[in-house]
Amino acid sequence: MAGEQNTVKTIIFTVLVGFDQKEDIAFLHKICEIFLSAGQPVYFVELVAQLEERIARNRQEARLKAKLSKRDLAFSHQELLTFNEKYRLESHSTELASLFPKVKTMKIDNTELSPEMVSQKIIANFQLE
């Protein structure tokens, strides 16, 4: 593997972050450093939605097809509620930028937005086209 070139242009992944959990923040720093140390840009997009919308989305057919862990509806519903109560799942206004000064960040409330609308906001905000 040494000397091989990465042929992937971009990598997108999602994580659930407890902003009050030091290990979650440390994990994000570790992931960032992998890319930043290779001279690659890193972008964080924090997606937030009202709890009622998150519950509704958790039951959508497309989500159930894509995410095996969501197919046990009772467990998934309870996990969503438990995590929502137990952890702070939304950053404070400038928290991401201050925790990750080398990372471009944005927050989007996507409660009323389609995935296409969200992607357009991201592209425009980070001037990716």
From TrEMBL:
This is Shikimate kinase. It comes from Enterococcus saccharolyticus 30_1. InterPro entries: P-loop_NTPase (IPR027417).
